[in-house]
Amino acid sequence: MAVAILTFGLAGAAPAGDAEVPEKYISVDEVKALLDMKKRVTLVDVRTREEFDELHVRGAKNLPLRDLPRRLAEVPRHDFVVLY
Question: pLDDT-based confidence at 17, cuts 50/70/90?
Fold first, then answer.
């Protein structure tokens, strides 16, 4: 399984043409390695609230994909942000 990671403040390809938000895909193992190294990582579950309530990664934020554009201000701008 691959997850997307948005790294605010770094250079790279940007989603939706936003030059401030580089994007890349990383594996679950890479996310775990970041967490194991105590890196600041914000996990964002983009599924519906119902799916999130059924099962999610502990500590993850629920921002359904359809709501993400209007709730983007809720995402920390200085952490690694992992969308899954």
Answer: low
Residue type, 37: M
2: β partners: 27
Q: Residue-wise over 1-15: b if at least 16 C-beta within 10 A, else e?
A: eeeebbbeeeeeeee
Convert the pLDDT of each residue in 18-65 to its tens digit.
Answer: 556 667 899 999 999 999 999 999 999 999 999 999 999 999 999 999
CA 14 from chain centre, in angstroms, equals: 14
CB 11 within 8 A of CB 2: no
Position 5, amino acid: I
Tracing tokens 């690694």 back to the chain, one arrives at 80
Q: Residue 10 and residue 43: Cα distance in Å, rounded?
A: 18
CATH 3.30.2320 fits 2-83, yes or no: no
What's the DSSP call for residue 66?
Answer: T
